[in-house]
Design goal:
mainly alpha, about 270 residues, globular, single chain, MetI-like fold
Length: about 270
């Protein structure tokens, strides 16, 4: 017979083990819900069919547009979003709370509504859109329109994630740098940025993934040039689900490859 205390501890350990098993089973259900559709997408068409579609002119053009626009919008999101994230993380008071709410707003707006909101500012009949069109740079039905739509819906990922990463950096390290006569920018570049880099890179990665998969706002601003999501929709509505599958596989491959590359680069520490 085990002592009473030992039996109690064994019972507690068993209870913990049981809960861990239950947690795994519940999580496995959700994991299967993620994986099964992806596997189904990959095996829905023979590899030869998918490879043949890779060289189709409309697929190549859509892939080029998606990668170029997503890269540009991610760059813009980083250039403007990272300074905003730093300001939010290092400014006290109620104003940063209000600004954060504005930043998060595009995340909760339906993508179609985001496109409608943008059209009220950069549409061809607006002051900004009309001026841009007169200058030879239309902001709708153009690559610029794609970038504007993607930046609107993807940039919050950079700001929110980078803000959390910067907030996790011990301020005393920054104070020490400033006490040694280093400017705020130098302190950010040499102290804050290297320590917060993994989190910042996560936000950049999420922004790129969100941009390359954007559909709703993009189709409102720029049906042409077609991105991969729009090309999938066109293939589905005109030729059926079977025709859209290969294009979707291409987009899945581009997305996965891009995420892998970005994460590999992020594993390299900053000098």
């Amino acid at each position: 017979m085990l002592p009473t205390r030992s039996r109690t501890e064994a019972g507690v350990a068993a209870g913990r083990l049981d809960w861990l098993s239950v947690a795994f089973l519940l999580g496995a259900v959700l994991l299967c819900y993620y994986l099964v559709p992806l596997v189904s997408l990959v095996v829905a068409q023979p590899p030869g069919v998918v490879l043949a579609r890779l060289t189709a002119p409309e697929v190549v053009a859509a892939a080029r547009t998606s990668v170029l626009a997503a890269t540009t919008s991610t760059l813009l999101s980083t250039v403007f979003g990272l300074p905003l994230a730093y300001w939010l993380a290092r400014t006290d008071g109620s104003l940063p709370t209000l600004v954060t709410a504005v930043v998060v707003l595009p995340l909760v707006l339906p993508p179609i509504v985001s496109g409608m909101v943008l059209l009220t500012v950069v549409g061809p009949n607006t002051l900004v859109g009309g001026a841009a069109m007169a200058g030879g740079l239309p902001l709708t039905r153009s690559l610029a329109g794609v970038v504007l739509a993607q930046t609107f819906v993807a940039s919050p990922f950079v700001v929110v994630t980078a803000k959390a990463a910067i907030e996790s950096v011990d301020r005393s390290l920054e104070y020490a740098s400033r006490s040694l006569g280093k400017r705020r920018l130098t302190t950010f570049r040499r102290v804050t940025l290297p320590l917060a880099w993994p989190g910042i890179l996560a936000g950049i990665t999420l922004a790129f993934a969100r941009a390359i998969g954007e559909f709703g706002a993009t189709i409102m601003l720029a049906y042409y040039p077609r991105t991969m999501p729009i090309q999938i929709w066109v293939s589905f509505t005109t030729l059926g689900l079977d025709e859209a599958f290969p294009v979707a596989v291409v987009l899945l491959g581009v997305s996965v490859a891009t995420l892998v590359v970005i994460n590999v680069l992020g594993a390299t520490p900053l000098e």
